[in-house]
Amino acid sequence: MARPLVECVPNFSEGRRQDVIEAIVSPLKNVPGVYLFDYRADADHNRLVISLVGHPEELQNALIASAKIAAQCIDMNVHKGAHPRIGAVDVIPFTPISGITMQQCIELTHGFGARYYKDTGIPVYFYEEAAMREERRKLEVVRKGQYEVLKEAVKNDPSRLPDVGENALHPTAGATVIGARKFLVAFNVNLGTTDVNVAKEIAKTVRASSGGLCHVKGIGLALEDRHMVQVSMNLVDYEKNSMYRVLEMIRMEARRWGVHVVETEVYGMVPAAAMLESSAYYMQTAGFDPDQVIELKLLKKMMEDA
Amino acid sequence: MARPLVECVPNFSEGRRQDVIEAIVSPLKNVPGVYLFDYRADADHNRLVISLVGHPEELQNALIASAKIAAQCIDMNVHKGAHPRIGAVDVIPFTPISGITMQQCIELTHGFGARYYKDTGIPVYFYEEAAMREERRKLEVVRKGQYEVLKEAVKNDPSRLPDVGENALHPTAGATVIGARKFLVAFNVNLGTTDVNVAKEIAKTVRASSGGLCHVKGIGLALEDRHMVQVSMNLVDYEKNSMYRVLEMIRMEARRWGVHVVETEVYGMVPAAAMLESSAYYMQTAGFDPDQVIELKLLKKMMEDA
Fold first, then answer.
1. Among B11, B163, B16, B158, which Cα is nearest to B85's?
2. Which tens digit of pLDDT belongs to each residue from A89-98?
3. For the complex shown, is ipTM > 0.90?
């Protein structure tokens, strides 16, 4: 059996001091079982976003080590930045990649949150799939008013009490929002027209907020330099709303205006299963097993051996 | 830079004695840098087929160790089996998977052949892309008359001299055919008719031997139990003749008879690039990088670290 793999994209409230950024990242580098894909600091946001994939145990250990460094180096009482935040370690979302169900990932998240508070003294709010109060599924509800408001509210507003911890934030590191969520696929469809209304109308037909597919968020916008328009989307559940289904629905709607799909864009990372599901549709492959893909089988073998 | 990866599917002339089979496989198990995917022994063929993926250096070391065991345990003078063969280690084909070009794979094959003869005393014939004589590209030319004929012919027929070695086979292990070849994708398209002539006619339009696509081999056959017919193909260069192109060509030809594609089958392993190329066609993904696929990026990271 291959060991479970999860993705984690922790966000830290430091995007300016290079030495602090490197110190936070260092426990995540060259750790067996933890794979650092990328990290990007933004000075305006004063924020650091790290992309990791790893096995749960090793990943959790490395995250705790990083969080301890962040708590030492970042003082939320003096932190300023354009991005909303409530803590030095602002959010830690876990996403199941393979060998782990969402339910197991939620359990992992809750276990991690308890240990995180014990080891760092930073109180924890759970969000998205791991939320313990329904309204906390939404990150903006947890972060309402940001650090400055929450610091006071937590003392006497029961609705702002952390899920793990007492009625006080960490004196310098604030609080951390920890959650479990599905992998989000950023998928854009570019259309051969300069009429942005076509993209806006189509976005309405496919997105959940206007009554379309339940797990699609989307807007229509103009790509003026390219003389095209775009339906820009987030697929928040690529298993329920497959890429091919979204694409073919847009293609079908575009016919009303005699407009064609010029190209599509997958922005950022995508799980192999999302691509294979779409190729299975178009290629009509029956009984195809991801283990037939050499690289996926090899990855499984390497993880078994590791 | 990720280290090169090659696939290797060595064939040994032993499909009956379980202890010999396990002895041959043992140097290929639990070796860092060598990943044993599968091994299948066939008693009628009296043959063992092993699927491996690995880094060139580690893979070559392990193969030499296996070959030495095979040479000790198998005597070609008493070997019998339904499958054509000239040696205890009958064929060793290398296939580039990633981080290595075909030209580099050919050089690797030639270097390996020289070392193989030096270490085992078994003469070597190079075939397919690594052939040193044009006619030896074809395995059946090298294996003509099998072990029994070659054993005598090698002594005085210059056309049967090995590429590495003298004018005599190894006294018990015979000779080995070593080569480099592209990855072969086995791809079948099932059609909704019981008229096998439709599949036969379509096979003629797509396969190289009848003037179709240069890197497609194929036949039409009936799937009687399923009330369908099949165009059964080997894509011997999936980069030049992509899966989607072959499928759409078959779909287009089938229209002549009002016949539809019911499903397709990918038999055995397939490189990720072959699937992604086809999904890029259907999904019209512009600028898609395989590194965007989480599992492929993770595999690269793991190989960098290894």
1. B11
2. 999 999 999 8
3. no
